[in-house]
Amino acid sequence: MNLNMKLTRAFYISLLSVCGLLLIAQVTDGKYMDGFDESVIAFITGLHSELMTKVMLLFTAIGNGGMVVVVSLVALFLLYKLGTSRMELLLFMAVVISSGLFNYLLKNVFQRMRPDFNPLVHADGFSFPSGHSMSAFALYGVLGFLAWLKVENRKVRTLILTICILMVLSIGTSRIYLGVHYPSDVVGGFLGGASLLALAVWYHQQKRTAA
Fold first, then answer.
1. Residue 90: pLDDT band by 50, 70, 90 thresholds?
2. pLDDT tens-digit profile of 95-152?
3. What is the pLDDT of residues 35-64, one digit of tens each?
4. What predicted TM-score, i.e. pTM, was given to this entire model?
């Protein structure tokens, strides 16, 4: 019963994440979402400094497509060395690749224009949801999940999970700081990544139970 409840919980988290993403998409032009975006933007832009800009440029570069490929390949190698099964390696690849495809689909469905408040970098394409945020949540989320399963030392596992969380938050924040995404874009990206990650966890646990 307890295991079935956990499996059901992972599935519902995935479903709720998708619902949350769709809800945000429907209210992006409403006064409440505008107020949220403006408040967060005002706070983050208030942190502007030469050093902070360099830090945010670094994190946004780490979240670029090319770096996601590099990090994914390095992670696959390390996971393989840790004895990760073929199914889990394929699961890792599926989550990372599907996040890019899912984001592309959503951007072209909602077609939200990017903010125009003096961006510090150039960005093409539509704004919602943030691709950097979605791919970061998917990549570092599934990496943290698999590392948690394979790394036996509790302190090391906690350190890995903490680093993964910080990477996700830093990459998402960098997109707002640099002026190429609204905060609601970033939240939408996180929810999109969370839906894929939760679905992957549900699938993985089902397979382990059936084995």
1. very high
2. 999 999 999 999 999 999 998 877 888 888 999 999 999 999 999 999 998 888 888 8
3. 888 899 989 988 889 999 999 999 999 999
4. 0.89
- Four-residue CA torsion sign, 87, 18, 34, 127: positive
Tokens 């073929």 found at: 86
Considering all CA atoms of the chain, what is the largest pairwise distance in Å, rounded to the nearest integer?
Answer: 54
Question: Domain containing 167: what range?
Answer: 2-210
Residues 113, 86: Cα–Cα separation, whole Å: 40
Return d(Cα 116, Cα 118) in angstroms, integer.
Answer: 6
How far apart are alpha carbons 131 and 145 in whole angstroms?
21
The whole-angstrom separation of Cα 49 and Cα 99 is: 32
- Expressed in angstroms, the distance from the first to the final Cα of the chain is 17
User: Which residue type is seen at 55?
Assistant: V
**17, 195 Cβ separation under 8 angstroms:** yes
Is 208 a residue whose pLDDT tops 80? no
Counting the structural domains of the chain, the total is: 1
- Residue 211: alpha-carbon gap to chain centroid: 30
Neighbours of 123 (CB within 10 A): 18
Give the contacts of 204 (CB within 8 A, at least 6 positions apart): 87, 88, 91
